[in-house]
Amino acid sequence: MQIHSHSDFNQNRDRREQGLQNLLDRLVKTMQRDELVRQTTNQLRESLQVDRVVLYYFYGQWQGQVTFESLSSKEFSILGSTGPDDCFNNEYAGLYLAGRVKAIANIELEPIQPCHRDFLSGMQVRANLVVPILIPRGLWGLLAAHNCQGPHDWSPSDIEMMQTGAQILATDRNILES
Predict the structure, then answer these.
(1) How many angstroms separate the CA atoms of 36 and 141, rounded?
(2) What CA–CA distance (Å, rounded) separates 174 from 30?
(3) C-alpha–C-alpha distance, residues 93 and 86, integer Å
(4) Is the CB of residue 53 less than 8 Å from the CB of residue 146?
(5) What mean pLDDT value characterizes the chain?
(6) DSSP secondary-structure letter at 165?
(7) Is-contact 52 78, C-beta < 8 A?
(8) Secondary structure of residue 117 in the 3-state scheme
(9) What is the pLDDT of residues 122-170, one digit of tens each?
(10) Is the pLDDT of residue 14 over 70?
(11) What DSSP assignment string belongs to 11-69?
(12) Beta bridge partners of 131
């Protein structure tokens, strides 16, 4: 039988308490980040009067998924969707890293790659507005507004609103630390 000193017991308890505090701190930061993303996507969808606004988060080198969405109707949900690996490549990533904003009023009339058109059609997208979320270490994600029920002409103020939303997310300390 091993006997532990009182100081060993206190050190173990202090380590457990510090570990628990670190876990709670990370949980609070995650909840704050998620609430900011939820509020931003909801406000953008309502202001733009579109069917869906999503956050496409990059978890790996040009691999990501839709982690948040604001919907006008549940039928438009694409939560968890991933992008087509063969369409989003270094060329497109480089454009978004450079700050590219892509506004497509009607995917049927826009000269885009067939795989991109098929991908958008498969998600019921008829019109698309995409802005990058750029943080100091690179492309964190894409903020995308989708109109699913028909074409949508994007105004300069629509684009500015989306860029502002992306900037709010890109400068949030909880996102910068994630």
Answers:
(1) 15
(2) 7
(3) 12
(4) yes
(5) 88
(6) H
(7) yes
(8) helix
(9) 999 999 999 999 999 899 999 999 999 999 999 999 999 999 999 999 9
(10) yes
(11) HHHHHHHHHHHHHHHHHHHHHHHHHHHHHHHHHHHHHHT-SEEEEEEEEETTEEEEEEE
(12) 143
Residue 37 CA to residue 101 CA, distance in Å, equals 19
Chain-centre distance for alpha carbon 19: 29
Tell me how far apart the alpha carbons of residues 147 and 42 are, in angstroms, rounded to a whole number.
14
Q: Could you tell me the CA-to-CA distances from 143 to 14, 65, 130 in Å, in that order?
A: 42, 12, 6
Residue 76: pLDDT band (50, 70, 90) is very high
The model's pLDDT over 33-46, given as tens digits with 9 standing for 90+, comes to 889 899 999 999 99
User: Do you know the residue count of the chain?
Assistant: 178
> Reduced to 3 states, what is the DSSP secondary structure of residue 150?
coil
Candidates 175, 119, 173, 127; CA nearest to 150 is: 127
Q: At 17, is the pLDDT very low, low, confident or very high (cuts 50, 70, 90)?
A: confident
Least confident of 7-11, 15-19, 123-127, 136-140: 7-11
The number of angstroms, rounded, from the C-alpha of 83 to the middle of its chain's C-alpha atoms is: 12
Comparing C-alpha atoms, which of 105, 104, 111, 101 is closest to residue 152?
105
Phi/psi class of residue 124: alpha, beta or left (left: φ > 0; alpha: ψ in -120 to 50)? Answer: left
